Write a sequence for this structure.
């Protein structure tokens, strides 16, 4: 695409999820003459579910959401870059992408989905719906600590207040959140016994190889231990 488009539309319906999880989202992104974003989320198929059942799954009676505003300039460049990777034409499926009302598709859906999820997090962070993502690691009895903070709004990440490369931080998040977490085996208070513990911001402390494990059953202790060696 030789010139910057005026408007990008992204619409997706996650109807493969059962209620109360199924929802559709929509982005209308204006690039010309100025950068602005309109975002909406609509949950559906909840008529046959009681409010108690919905709340038991961590939702509320009405989780629909709308927002319109601007994001930092770095997001304008991010949108322009993702547009360059799109190809003209329509593909079957729930994901619909339009550029100035013409159909486009992504040949790398994993990368495009990652872009969309980060954009959603940036919107939530911008409006105060969510805070920056924070992770905390503690190694005992050495009392070593790592504080990992990531801002999707600013596309910045840091460990112990030292900035780290965005791509590297993204890989770190992918590695950690691909692991299995067992909240029923986690601690509700800051740990005091020997081990490495992870706090993902949900007030729980997950002990490595106990309440956070690899999906293939292998130990992840060395992975986390190496983070201390790298960043301390």
């Amino acid at each position: 695409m030789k010139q910057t488009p005026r408007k990008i539309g992204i619409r997706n319906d996650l109807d493969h999820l059962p209620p109360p999880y199924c929802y559709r989202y929509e982005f209308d992104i204006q690039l010309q003459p100025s950068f602005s974003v309109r975002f909406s989320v609509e949950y559906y198929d909840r008529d046959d579910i009681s409010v108690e059942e919905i709340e038991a799954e961590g939702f509320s009676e009405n989780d629909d959401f709308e927002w319109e505003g601007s994001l930092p300039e770095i997001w304008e460049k991010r949108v322009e870059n993702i547009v360059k990777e799109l190809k003209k034409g329509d593909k079957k499926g729930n994901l619909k992408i339009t550029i100035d009302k013409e159909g486009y598709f992504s040949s790398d859906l994993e990368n495009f989905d990652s872009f969309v999820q980060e954009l959603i997090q940036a919107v939530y962070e911008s409006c105060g719906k969510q805070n920056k993502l924070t992770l905390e690691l503690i190694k005992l009895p050495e009392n070593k600590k790592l504080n990992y903070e990531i801002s999707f709004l600013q596309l910045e990440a840091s460990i112990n207040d030292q900035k780290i490369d965005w791509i590297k931080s993204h890989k770190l998040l992918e590695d950690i959140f691909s692991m299995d977490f067992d909240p029923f085996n986690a601690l509700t208070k800051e740990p005091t016994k020997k081990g490495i513990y992870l706090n993902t911001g949900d007030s729980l402390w997950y002990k490595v190889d106990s309440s956070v494990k690899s999906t293939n059953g292998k130990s992840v202790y060395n992975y986390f231990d190496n983070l201390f060696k790298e960043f301390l």
